[in-house]
Each structure stands twice: as C-alpha cells, then as structure tokens.
Write a structure and sequence with these properties.
Elements (H helix, E strand, L loop, with lengths): L6 H9 L2 H19 L2 E11 L25 H13 L4 E6 L7 H14 L4 E5 L5 H9 L4 E3 L7 H7 L5 H13 L3 E8 L6 H13 L4 E6 L16 H14 L6 E2 L1 H6 L1 H6 L7 E5 L3 H4 L14 H14 L3 E2 L1
Bound molecules: S-adenosyl-L-homocysteine.
Length: 325
C-alpha cells in the first residue's frame, strides 16, 4: 500500500469499505510505532478563559451565546496551575482560551516567561486564536514552544459560513506565521461539519501536510445545544479514525492526539485510535469550577484533582497496551 497519497487516492481511501481500509490502519500503527514505539505523550490542558470575541457557529464559547457564564483566570493563577501540573509529572502544558483581548500579547508573554522561570523544563503550548504575525514571534521570544491553531475546514465557503468574522486565507496565513516564528505548529480540523465531503477532508489532510504541521488534532464535530448548529448531526468516529490514520502516513513524525471530542463521542474508538496512528493525549488541569464553564461542545463534567487526573490518564493508556510518557 505504498501508493502516492494524492487527493484522488485520499478521497478513495476515505470512502472504501471498512475491510478495504483495514490495511491502512495497520500501516498507520506500524509507522507510528516506528517513530514512537508504544509511547503515548500526555499533555496538560489548562482552559484559562472562556471569553471570546468570535462568533464561530459550532462553538459553545461563541460571543452570541448569552447563556454561558464567563470566567477568566488571573495570570498568577495560570502560572500556579502550570507549576502544579509540572509537579504532578506533566512535561507540557497547553494554555487554551477563547479569543479574549483581555490577555494582550504582552500579558500572554509575561505568563509564558513566569512559567518558564518557575519550571524551565515545562514545554508551553499556546492555543488562543489568531494574532498578527509579529505576535507569534514575540511569544516565541518569551519562551513559548508550540502554538495550536486548527484550520477547522479547508473549504473556503464552508469556512466563511462557520466563521462570520474570519476567512480560511487568514487562518492559513496565521498557521504559516506560526511556523515561520519557529514555534512547533499545531493544526487540525473537524470531521462531520455540515456540507463537508470526502474531497473536503482530503484537502484538510493536504492542508495540514502543506504547512507542514508538527502536530495536528482531528476531532468529530459535536453539536452544542446553545448554538445554531444544535440540530446538526455529529461527525463520525470511524471517519475521524480514518483521517488520523491517513495523517500518520502523510506526516510520520507528527504528534497526533486522540482528541477529547472523539472520547466524548465514543470512548471505545478513542482507545482504538492509539492503534491507528495517534500518539498524544491531553488531560485537563483546569480548576473544576471553570472546567464546567469551558463548554466548546457538550461533555460530561468530571471533577478530579491534577494528580488524580494524571493517574487516570496513565491508567487509560496502560489499559490499551501503551506506555504513558
Ligand atoms: N480560540 C482558540 C481555541 C479554540 S477551541 C482558537 O481559535 O484556536 C479548540 C478547538 O475545539 C477548535 O479549534 C475546534 O476545532 C474545536 N471545537 C470547537 N467547537 C467544537 C464542536 N462543537 N465540536 C467539535 N469540536 C469543536
């Protein structure tokens, strides 16, 4: 199965029967183990603000959702949580938020510097949305290691419909700027968006490969009850797995997470994905009160301490025959 993975071949593989796709899953696992052995990397995820100025139609945090109680963590509290995560064994923390102008680039830079001075070996990933190119350079200078910004969908029309205040071209240029700033670049997209076709997904895969992204999260769309897409069907778990497996073949060295959204949709599929190309998992370290309010999509709320969460996720990884790192 060493055929060239061009657009036509990707579309074909996204639409063949499960039986015909099986060799791709096996190949993705082989390529993944060649790179990472049986190791799965665990990342801490801190959701530090659910304020957002954007109106993305699928997202529960969008600014038109007046039902949502909003919160914002003080910079000191963010730094302290990162320190706690490092002391619980995490080697990477992902700081994620809506697009919240309260945190200027300066403030975000100060947070990164403070974390780095407290725990120099903790890698810091930011996921706070779109900025001008020089902001990503500044954040890199402050010590940020990585930046996550999914392109969401590569269909420009669908992108414009879902994001009334942005465009695919803008999103793509941000990803390029992140890469040029020397940050490890995280991209990704959703499966099952209204109007998405196998061709769109093939383009999504090629978009991630074209950056090329160092990490990429692919997750199923999950309808949020307080958005206009509340009645839209959720994305398919098995199609999500196919996309991750194909991404593993396109980018053998990339860090590919089992997305939280996949686990919400189908816990079994989330376990399976570590045998189909995924090598990363994120675990929330967000304080309980805030975790409840960070509802991008509906998910069961689980209360656990940072240390318990760490133990749980290690256990989860061992259960599927992999080694937590
Ligand atoms: N504001 C940041 C972080 C966005 S939230 C940014 O713009 O990058 C992180 C990711 O959650 C998004 O990139 C999107 O892919 C995913 N997401 C948002 N709403 C979702 C939904 N309803 N279903 C599935 N995934 C969703």
């Amino acid at each position: 199965m060493r055929t060239r993975l061009d657009r036509k071949e990707l579309v074909r593989l996204l639409t063949v029967s499960d039986a015909e796709f099986l060799p791709v899953l096996e190949e993705a696992d082989r390529v993944c183990q060649e790179q990472f052995g049986k190791q799965v990397y665990i990342r801490a995820l801190l959701e530090f603000s659910n304020h957002c100025k954007r109106a993305c139609k699928y997202c529960g945090l969008n600014c038109t959702n007046s039902k949502l109680a909003r919160f914002r963590m003080e910079p000191d509290a963010i730094v302290q949580t990162a320190v706690q995560a490092a002391d619980a064994g995490y080697r990477t923390i992902v700081l994620q938020s809506g697009e919240d102008a309260w945190y200027s680039v300066q403030i975000l830079g100060d947070i990164v510097k403070a974390i780095k001075s407290e725990r120099p070996h903790l890698a810091v990933t930011l996921s706070c949305g779109e900025f001008p190119a020089d902001a990503y350079q500044y954040l890199k200078q402050c010590g940020a290691d990585r930046y996550l910004l999914k392109h969401e969908t590569s269909d420009p029309k669908l992108y414009a419909y879902l994001h009334p205040d942005s465009s695919f071209a803008e999103r793509f240029s941000c990803l390029k700027a992140i890469k040029e700033a020397g940050l490890e670049t995280g991209g990704g997209f959703m499966i099952g968006l209204v109007g998405q076709t196998p061709e769109t997904i093939a383009d999504d895969l090629l978009t991630v490969a074209s950056i090329p992204c160092d990490m990429a999260g692919v997750g199923p769309f999950l309808p949020h009850p307080d958005t206009v897409l509340r009645d839209a069907p959720h994305g398919s778990a098995s199609l999500t797995i196919r996309a991750v497996a194909l991404l593993r073949l396109l980018l053998p060295k990339a860090n590919l997470p089992a997305t939280t959204a996949l686990g919400v949709l189908d816990a079994e599929q989330k376990d399976k994905i570590f045998r189909c190309g995924a090598n990363v998992i994120m675990q929330k370290v967000t304080p309980a009160d805030f975790k409840k309010m960070y509802q991008i999509y509906p998910a069961k709320f689980q209360d656990y301490s940072i240390e318990e969460g760490r133990r749980q996720v290690e256990e989860e990884i061992r259960r599927v025959g992999r080694i937590p790192v």
